Amino acid sequence: MVHPLVAQLRFTRSEWLRGLAGVTDDDGARHFGAMNAIGWLVGHLASHEQRYWLVMGQGRLLVPEVRACAPGQPASTPPLSEMLAAWRAITEASEPYLDSLIPQLLATHWEVNGSPAPESIGTSCHRIHFHYWYHLGEMQAIRQLLGQTDLPTYVGNLAPAAYRPTGDY
């Protein structure tokens, strides 16, 4: 059984996909004021998933293109379909690593430029959960500005990430 943090991440990803249901490439390229486009949001979260679970966790860079959506990069409007394909490839490739996360490993820190990262792997997992939920709200606001109705309500069925006592994994 996977660690509860991993189960929560997988649930969060499923909610992310539920929030994206029905978004077209045209919708994904729209900007409202200073808000990022939905295509960029998908690439941005893909860049974080890749950085944590593939680059820092495994020393692998799978989809270099998503780095254009990383923090500090110039504004861009990547096609939603391309970013979603990248997100899917990255998250699929991260699964074996996520399955390996046990409490002892979650308490450790990745090494970055020869020094321990400031946050533990477990804290990074928390951070990406919260990051998804932040951008999920932003995406739903964009969809409302697009005039879309009947959007998903949150939070959905929590059964896949239901509470389990700490030792039950």
Number of helices: 6
Can you tell me the CATH topology?
A: Four Helix Bundle (Hemerythrin (Met), subunit A)
> What amount of the residues lies in strands?
under 5%
Report the strand count: 2
CATH architectural arrangement: Up-down Bundle
Cα Rg: 16 Å
Q: What's the name of the CATH homologous superfamily?
A: dinb family like domain
What's the N-to-C terminus distance?
Answer: 5 Å
CATH class category label: Mainly Alpha
Q: What is the makeup of the main sheet? A: 2 strands, antiparallel
Count of distinct structural domains: 1
> Helicity, in percent?
40-55%
Uncertain residue ranges: none
Report mean pLDDT, rounded to a whole number. Answer: 93
Element-level helix/strand string: HHHHHEEH
Shape: globular
Main sheet strand line-up: 1-2
Structural class: mainly alpha
How would you describe the overall organization of this protein?
The chain has a two-stranded antiparallel ribbon with strand order 1-2. It has one domain (4-161): dinb family like domain (Four Helix Bundle (Hemerythrin (Met), subunit A)). The longest helix has 25 residues, at 121-145. The chain is mainly alpha-helical and 169 residues long. It has helices spanning 4-20, 25-28, 38-58, 80-99, 103-106, 121-145; strands spanning 111-112, 115-116. The chain contains 6 helices and 2 strands; from the N terminus they run αααααββα. Helix content is 54%, strand content 2%. Strand 1 (111-112) and strand 2 form a beta hairpin.
